[in-house]
Amino acid sequence: MKIEMMVERTNTGYSAYATKYPVYTVGGSLEELKANMLDALNLYFEERGKPVTENDLKITLNLQQFFQFYKVINAKALSERIGINQSLLAQYINGQKKPSPTQTQRILKGVQQVGKELASIQFII
After folding, report:
1. How far apart are CA 7 and CA 60, in angstroms?
2. In which region does residue 30 sit, left (phi positive, over 0), alpha (psi from -120 to 50) or beta (all else)?
3. For 28-80, what is each residue's pLDDT tens digit?
């Protein structure tokens, strides 16, 4: 079972809520937020008998939030890689324009591809 949690940046850290259950939580960092999500979900599903794990989470955030969380991702380089105008991607990131579902999927696919490539890298020791 995947439990979708919507994550938002706040002035004091992060907040999250389950899209299908009355479960809400906050955290000062993403790591703390994930731990609090699991605690809150496990309290809610206590009678289920099987604990909720990180593998059960589907963490969702909007494009603007994503780039705030992962500032290490260079929007210019990503725009070149996926073939989206840099200015347009910057407008999406800054919230000036809202990407269509097709554009959002295109950006997500590009980010996921970079993630797969990074996960497969090994350094010579």
Report:
1. 6
2. alpha
3. 988 899 999 999 999 999 988 889 999 999 998 888 888 887 888 888 999 99
Domain count, the chain: 2
Rg (CA), the chain: 17
Structure tokens at 12: 């004091």
Which residue shows structure tokens 């347009």? 88
Q: Are 75 and 87 in contact (CB under 8 A)?
A: no
Written in H, E and C, the secondary structure of 82-124 is: HCCCHHHHHHHHCCCCCCCHHHHHHHHHHHHHHHHHHHCCCCC
Residues listed for the chain: 125
**Of 34, 60, 86, which residue is a domain's last?**
60
The token pair that represents 8 in the structure block: 């938002």
End-to-end CA distance of the chain: 39
Domain boundary among the residues 27, 60, 93 is at 60
Kindly report the pTM of this predicted structure.
0.70
Range of the domain at 107: 63-119
